[in-house]
Amino acid sequence: MSTPYSRFTPLGLSFLLAALSLVGLVLSAWFWVPALIFGALGVVGIFDLIQTRRAVLRNYPILGHMRYMFESIRPEIRQYLIESDQDEEPFSRELRTIVYQRAKNVEDKRPFGTRMRVYDSGYQWLTHSVRPKHITDTNFRIDIGGPDCKQPYSASIYNISAMSFGALSSNAIEALNRGAKAGKFAHDTGEGGISRYHRAGGGDLIYEVGSGYFGCRDASGNFSPEKFAETAADPQVKMIEIKLSQGAKPGHGGMLPAAKISPEIAEARGVPMGVDCISPASHSAFSTPLEMMHFIAQLRELSGGKPVGFKLCIGHRREFMCMVKAMLETGITPDFIVVDGKEGGTGAAPLEFANHMGMPLVEGLTFAHNTLRGAGLRERIKIGASGKLVTAFDIARVLALGADWANSARGFMFAIGCIQAQACHTNRCPVGVATQDKTRARALVVPDKAERVANFHGNTMKALAEMTGAAGLSHPGGFLPHHFLMREKDGEMVVADEVYPYMPEGFLLREDDERFGYLKRWRRARAAAFEPIDSGV
């Protein structure tokens, strides 16, 4: 039977064994080794008893450290020993594996049928044709640029989503951009500005302009038209994206402490060394929907007519409608809108934001798509989608729900070696992807990983072509909601266009369709301000 004080046994044994080891020195000098080991454990145990921060260690000296050790490796234990292939935390092993295989250009086929529970609620599938088509050209592209755009961009329908230098290492950024160059697709800079590593690869860039205006700010942190024009003139810059919010932490600003600002980060962002770098929660260049449209027009003019759009995670749906009403009132429309789902997550975020703020991609995408249709603007504005889109099925699904192209951040992170250690915010990424520690970043070999980025993109496009052909289509842009079915609950299936239908063109202008609450919000939205006409959202 254990005694009430048996928890102190390891401490007592440490001192006893240390003492016996000292006695053993008369027999051999090698007893210094156990004497030092057990003596050190005893000292640790005494410190555990007298420290005041951790109750576990005060009650379980020495032994309590095992608890903290196992807690520190809990994600790895779950990932390698406990999780099934379908457990999403946040990406399943099955999804990570298919990215690794396609990036390495190795066999990605599976034997013995699906492992998914096809009769469970939430299962989705694609309808196929008895007359499939063979698609040879997998370089699927979309032209982005509205009537006011002088330099439209022919973009791949699958591109690298926004990830900043500073969040990712220099080697990671360069590998991504070199891969984008080789695969002929675009690389979003993230809001951290254009670094020398973005330029080193020579790949097409989407320059993201966030609330910190990095790369286009004056000494006070306000937008600088002159610096923007200089940055946007770079031939590598193909489009400009105004970031309103991101899926990981919509409505949340950020700060990069002065201690973490390296000369390279300061160069890319246009900020001074030794000063905290603030990203406000909202933009200072505009505060109303009308001002936002004029800002879009200003950026398009300053860039020489390159496509200009914005990215957001849908929050108050009425606020998005305010923007659309401002488009109608001013006649100024963005060339594109990127809808980021709240499941997006490369940026470190507070738990409450990551779990409970923002709209998931499917609902956000269908809302934005249908609002533009209702206002008669959908044909002028292209829509991109981002949020856990790593397979051909993911891309086909968002194209069917209203997107023109898809972006992926974590998919391309896996392609350059990310193992989902979820240590992105600690600066201790084990594979050199999300760190500014140069000794860790050197593990990521740029030429090898750049090739994997191009492979992943190319093989995913081939898989998408096979799915498209199997559905009897000639291009992925032909997918519509009726090509997809899903289970709402066990044993019952529903066609996607019953749940996420395309609303009629111009229905908001005519005010003739009351479904899904669109008209209620439309009537309360106004172009002059983001605030509602009444107290609702």
From TrEMBL:
Recorded family membership: Belongs to the glutamate synthase family.
Protein name: FMN-binding glutamate synthase family protein
Superkingdom as given in the UniProt entry: Bacteria
Cross-referenced PANTHER family: ARCHAEAL-TYPE GLUTAMATE SYNTHASE [NADPH]
Residue span(s) of domain Glutamate synthase: 159-473
CDD domains: GltS_FMN
InterPro entries referenced in this protein's UniProt entry, alphabetically: Aldolase_TIM (IPR013785), GltB (IPR024188), Glu_synthdom (IPR002932), YerD (IPR027283)
Coiled coil: none
